[in-house]
Structure formats: C-alpha cells, structure tokens
Amino acid sequence: MAKQKKTIITCAVTGAIHTPTMSDALPYTYDDITAQAVEAAEAGASILHLHARNPNDGSPSVNPEDFKPFLQRIKQASDAVVNLSTGGSLTLSIQDRIKPANTFSPEMCSMNMGSMNFSFHPLAGRYDEWKFDWEKEYVGSSDGNIFRNTFRDIREAAETLAPHDIKFEHECYDVGHLYNLKFCMDSGLFKAPIFIQFIFGILGGIGPEVDNLIFMKRTADRLFGDDYRWSVLGAGGAQMSLATTASQLGGNVRVGLEDSLLITRGTLAISNAEQVKKIRRIIEDLGSDVATPGEAREILALKGRDKVCF
Ligand code: KMH
Ligand code: ZN
User: Fold this and answer.
1) Strand partners, 200
2) Does 2 have pLDDT greater than 80?
3) Distance 3 CA to ligand 1 centre (A)
4) Is the shortest distance between the CB of 17 and ligand 1 below 6 Å?
5) Which residues in 11-32 are b (16+ Cβ under 10 Å) and which e?
6) What is the mean pLDDT of the chain?
7) At residue 1, does pLDDT exceed 80?
8) In the CATH scheme, what is the code of domain 6-307?
9) What is the SS3 assignment for 267?
10) Which atom of ligand 1 lies closest to the CA of 86?
11) Where are the domains of the chain?
12) Which of 98, 113, 176, 301 has the most CB atoms around it within 10 Å of its CB?
C-alpha cells in the first residue's frame, strides 16, 4: 500500500486491563481521565482511545454516564479525535459494550475482530496488597476469560452503529482476525479505507516479535491492498520498540497506559503524555512527522468532530 507521509499517534488512556494498584499514574476519575487525555493530545496524540471507569474504585465501566463527564470536557479542551472502546470490559456482552458508542456517536470506535483467550492473570502474582477489593479477583480470574467477538457479535455491532458513520479501529490480535475482517468487509459491513490496529503481546494473541509484525502487514497487504491504513500496538514492554518499527515501516502507532504502564524497562510512566512525548521524539528524530488531528481525519476519512453527540 502507499506510504503515508505523516504518522498518527493514538493514545489509549486507561483501558480495562491494568488496575489502580499497578500504577498511581493510571487515571480512573473523571478529572484524571480528562486531564491525562488532554495532556496526551497536547503532546502529539491525534486520536484518544477511551474507556471509562467507575470513578470511586477504578473498576472498568461501560455505563454511558461514566463517559459523559470527560467526553464533553475533552472536546472543549482539545481537537483530538475521540475513539470509544467497544471492547469495554472483556467479559460483557456486545450489546452492553456498544452502548457508549451508540450513545455518543464518536468519530471512531474500536471493533474487535475475533473471539480469543485474553488473559493478564500472571500480573496477579506481583502484588501482595491491592488498593481496591475487586482488583485481585478481576486480574487473577482472567485465565478463564473468553473475549467473545463472534461473527454474529461483529455484525450486530456494525449494523447497530452503521447509522453513526463511525470509523472503526479494527483490533486484530492474530493473523486469523485479518481473515475475519476480510470476510466481514466482503459481506459489506465495513467500507474502505479501513483502519487496522495490529496488536502484539496479549496473552492469547500473537507474540511481540518483529517477524510477526511483518507477517501481519504482508497478510493485510495481500487481503486489503490500498483499502487499509494500519497502526501497531505492542503490549507491555514491547510498546515502544514495536511502535518505532511500525513508524519506520510507514505505519501509525498506539501508546498509552491501557497498553503499557512503562516508560522504559522496569520504570513506570508518570503519565500517558510521557509515553506520547517519547514516541513523538523517536518518530521525529528518525525523520518523520506526526499527524495533527486534522491530518488524521483526512488520512482515515473521518466524519468530523461536528457530527459527534457529546
Ligand atoms: N486493550 C487492547 C489490547 C478495545 O478497547 O476494544 C485492546 C483494546 C480493546 O483496546
Ligand atoms: Zn481499549
């Protein structure tokens, strides 16, 4: 596919995997999610991938009422593209998970492209004490998770959200998910240009090796030709190195505390913006430019911020 001139940085601000015990920097109140999202946008993120949390204990929430307080404030303070998660909390139904996107009609939302094991239970052994009661069980029991995204679920999400003209961030955690996406595209569910997030390093998905990135990209080239744009998310310690490789290959990048709590090996990031600043510096030092929100809208053919409902 044609090489893009500018690199889009997505920042995934809080997610639903990490918990408050794991890092004091992980935002979960409305104020902290707002502040960190705006700061990440100021640092160079043109897309903000957002989940909500219960503001009292940091547990993942798909209640639209937990999105509203920060969506309005982020829009007032920043031009960044808002991308709402439909992965939500991994064990919930697709009907619950799409409620925030169906309520607020953002420019983008995620669309997970296959059912899979999705586990972070090894993290449970690292902590003796937990800030909140729910955390230990939530993390430790994820070895029993099935992250359910059947063809029927994908169709239901796509058809329910179709009237909103939302561009999907197609989350592909393994090579089979690219074929699922191709099948759905051929069925008329998604229109070009599609935006694929290649995800590496989730326990249950493909591993974080550069060979795998090349394999995923070659497969996508073959399946989608010029009809796709792509980005890379490396989970945990693979975040910065895989983002750097992706940017050098002409792709876009995703960072943020949803995907990794680290700034460098063994050191916690102090904020989402710190990760954005770091990848921006690397991209610019290596001779590329970072896309503005306006440029990201053009590259991904988004509907525009005047068409959202928040
Ligand atoms: N947590 C990421 C690995 C979603 O929000 O739909 C995947 C993700 C899922 O961002
Ligand atoms: Zn997410």
Assistant:
1) 234
2) no
3) 26
4) yes
5) bbbbbbbbbbbbeebbbbebeb
6) 97
7) no
8) 3.20.20.70
9) strand
10) 6
11) 6-307
12) 113
